[in-house]
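ugh ok so i messed up the first submission bc i forgot one of the chains. this is the corrected input, ALL of the components this time, i swear. 656 residues overall. if the numbers dont match what u have on ur side tell me asap before i send this to the collaborators (the ones from the other lab, u know who)
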Amino acid sequence: MGRYILKRLGYLLVTMWIIITATFFLMNTLPGDPVQTGTKLLPEAVAQNLRVKWGFDKPVTHRYVIYLNNLLHGDFGESMKTPGLTANAIIRDKFPASARLGLQAITFGLLVGLILGIIAAFKRNTWIDYTVIFIAIAGISIPSFVLAALLQKVIGGSLLPIIGWPSTNVWLSGFEYTILPTLAASFGSIATYSRFMRTSVLEVLNNDYILTAKAKGLSRREIVQKHVLRNSLIPIITIFAPQMAGIVTGSFVIERIFCIPGLGMYYVESINGRDFPMIMATTIFFSFFFIISIVLMDILYGIIDPRVRVSGEKR
Amino acid sequence: MTKLMEVKNLRVSFHTYAGEVQAVRDVSFSIDSGEAVAIVGESGCGKTVTSKSIMGLIPTPPGDIKENSSILYKGKDILKFSDKEWQKFRGAEAGMIFQDPMTSLNPTTKVGKQIMENLMVHRHMNKSEAFNEAVRMLEVVNIPNSRERVNDYPHQFSGGMRQRIMIAIALACNPRLLIADEPTTALDVTIQAQILELLKDIQKQFDTAVMLITHDLGVVAGMARNIIVMYAGQIIEKGTVDEVFKNARHPYTNSLLNAVPGLNLKSKVQLASIYGTPPDLLAPPAGCAFAGRCKFCMKICREQMPGVTKISSTHEASCWLQHSQAPRINIAEGIRGEQDG
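and heres the new structure output, hopefully the right one now
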């Protein structure tokens, strides 16, 4: 297992390098001058000074080498739009809010989704099942910003704060501020998980080994706990991992609506503003999370399903 | 010998969109303790439904066990069991082995644990006792290195070994009745022989009654004492192995026996088969269910169900040809002649 993980981490480095290289060169083919992005043109002399400051006077391959070198020292560079602030500082500053919202949303979404899915499967073709299906369809088709606005209107105000986020002790304080955004961000995943889980449980229930378990004289609860749950989780892992990366690194829409000082907005704004160091930083950050969660998914598969356990591992 | 189980007038139907399928139509038989009984018949004749009824594994709905049916186990009607009573009965009093060992074991659970579950529920063992007993059960079913293999997962075993593990699971609590539903159908021939040998050993060693469900008469001959032949949801003939093999009275039984290929068959000889298909159980015929495929079919066969004729104290057949006024013909000869002609 240890060797397998090392190998996967090796692949991770190679993949990261490919992503970095591709993004770097693609970014340089973007039309427009990165120092002339304001509505008013800067005087040519000023622009020239800026070009020298950001290194745009050097050929692209030269810049690439410098960038890689900085990256190896853990330096993402300084943001061009907010001079004085490094990309590292922005991520360090903004990521906790996004991560907290993401983790809360994913925990809540997964738990509720799985439970709803299991209930729907066992109460198949009853009003409970139809209600879950309705929630699922609504969750998939209602955009999160509509739901967010709706939550603000209906629940927010008297009961819960409509906008804002705890500014001190970002991980633990101000839970009431996080409730509405968490609900809004998790609704879609509740829908996805409950649908997948329902189908998966029904499929497992049709398997012969469930009949074997019944013939052993196990009670309904024991059958569900020991034979149904684990087997029906296998397809869930597949959809869980990629979602995890996306949700933890921040959502542009939800963070905007609830005024959360998260990372989400930087993905969009850095590209609009030709903020090269920020584009690189956010891309690398997101890719890193994504690949890590895929590696985690493969390890999780092995834990849940012994049949896909890695070869060479001791039985 | 004492009667262990008595099935009386069992009728089971399934409600489908097309209508009511009468899978089992008035089946009665009994099993003595320690005895091996074989139920023989082609696909869809109600063998499996009968055995699942005994285990309480018919899902209702769509299944429907009719009012007057009863299954007495040690004198108690198990069809009236509550869920709790069923749980106590399954696994402890009766165990079941299924047809396909490749899918009958939980792929994500160690085989030892799958055996232990049984022991912990019914014999209230703690973990280490159950573990040791699971190891011992694997030894009983001849799994080598059982102490290590008990921690393996099903995919690490071959088909034959998995069927042995299924047998170990079914036998863990030393049930009085073991139902084997086509236990060798999914296995290749050499493994089949080993599994049957094992079942035979177990039946003798633990004095367990075995109900063997199969469509392979070769399997029956070496294993069972009594044979029950089913057709279209009914028992059409039953008797001891000797009586059924040497003196079959129903044309269907004769056709089945005739269809077993002999070892000295010459090449390019067409294998014997039974022409036609079984009747649709959505609307079973008024008369004998086999009439449409029977070479000796008479007018009465299509109009009225034949009664049961007792040939000896153990042998009975349901066929109009056994009626006292029916023409005396040699059924076995007739069937063989049909094949030659």
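quick check: Chain A has a mean pLDDT of 86. that seems consistent at least. The radius of gyration of chain A is 24 Å.
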